[in-house]
Each structure stands twice: as structure tokens, then as C-alpha cells.
């Protein structure tokens, strides 16, 4: 199994899910994707994470992002767990959870880190663009629930920087100033950024978010 890196094509697979069989690339179609792993069904942190993600469905939809979770447990177990998630988190699970009892997905995406735990997956997140390229990889330990607003924030940055010659600074949020990429000359910047820009250092130029 090769290590997956940013820019690699996300491995394709076919696997059962709580919403039927999923052929991953076909299922993604022209959407962005978020694939995220859970150590085990019926565990407390995972239960809160799936509820948090379900509540953000409209935000993912707005960004043309399909979300899919994976846990190595079988489909019967998932079907029981989604009832608990709805009951305890106040929101139905509105995206598929892949069953992965043969660890096909976990192995393809290197989600089991044996020195952390040799049977459970870590909390991996992969953001995949419409060309099926991996654009973000985050790995959290089993003991720490993820921040799904941070995943949305990165998707906002990825989608913005795909269209404009900007990067986003630390802790950037939608609507805030961006950084002009160093490859753009000042002359080019005059044309590309009609809202103007501020040169703090020759390598640090900020401009209002171009599409805000
Ligand atoms: C949890 O999701 O709560 C969890 C899973 C594995 C280890 C620790 C916590």
C-alpha cells in the first residue's frame, strides 16, 4: 500500500453503505467529496461527530460536497447505530456510512495506524476535488473529535484558490482578506485585483476576497 499524498488520485472502491452499494468515483460524480473514518460503531465521540456532520449537511450541499463516513463494522451494526445517533444528537444521519468489515477502504486509505491501534481506524479526513484528486488529509487520534467547521473552512479556501491567484492566511474565514500569491507581479496584481491590495512586505500583499 503506497502512502497517499496531496495531489494523488483518491483510490476508487466499491463498498456497501447505509444508503446502498457505493462505487466511489461514480458516486462522487462531479462533486467534491469528504471521506472520513470512525474507529468503531457505538462509540461516544464518533456518535457526536456523525451528528455534527449531519447538522452541517446544508453547508456541504452549498459547496457541492458529498460526505461519506466509513467504519470497519458491518452494515447491520451501522443500521442500529444510526438510530442511536438520531436519538441522541437530534438529527438523522443524512449521508452514507460505508461498511468496511474487510477493511478495503481502511487499507486503501491507510486509516489503520498499528502503533496507535492495530484494529481501529484513526480519525482520517480526505477532501477530494471533482477531478478525484486528494486536496486535504487530516489525521486525528481516536480520543479527539474533529472540528467540521474547520473542514468547511478549508473547502472554502480550496474552492476560492482554485479560481483566483490568492492564498488564505492563518485562521481565514469566508469574506476576510486574502493573500496574493508570490508568483503574481505587482503589475499583474493591479489588473487581477480591482479592489486593490496592500503591500506589507514585497512577499506579503493582501487584498479583499475577490468574490465576496
Ligand atoms: C469514540 O468514538 O468515542 C472512541 C472510539 C475509540 C476510542 C476512543 C473513543
Explain how this protein is built.
By secondary structure, the protein is α+β, with helices and mostly antiparallel strands. 30% of the residues lie in helices and 22% in strands. It has a 5-stranded mixed sheet. Strand 6 (123-128) and strand 7 form a beta hairpin. The termini are far apart. 28% of the residues are buried. The model has no long low-confidence stretch (mean pLDDT 97). The structure holds benzoic acid. The site of benzoic acid (BEZ) has 9 residues, from helix 2. Benzoic acid is lined by residues 39-40, 43-46, 120, 142-143.
In DSSP terms (H or I, runs of 4 or more residues), the helix count works out at: 7
Helix/strand/pairing class, anyone?
A: alpha+beta
Tell me the Rg in angstroms. Answer: 19 Å
Mean pLDDT: 97
Query: How can the largest sheet be summarized?
Result: 5 strands, mixed
Q: How many strands in all?
A: 11
Cα shape: elongated
Hetero groups: benzoic acid
Helix content class? 25-40%
Lateral arrangement of strands in the main beta sheet: 5-4-3-6-7
List SSEs in N-to-C order. Answer: EEHEHHEHEHEEHEEHEE
Distance separating the two termini: 42 Å
Q: List segments where confidence is low: pLDDT < 50 over at least 5 consecutive residues.
A: none
Residue share in β-strands: 15-25%
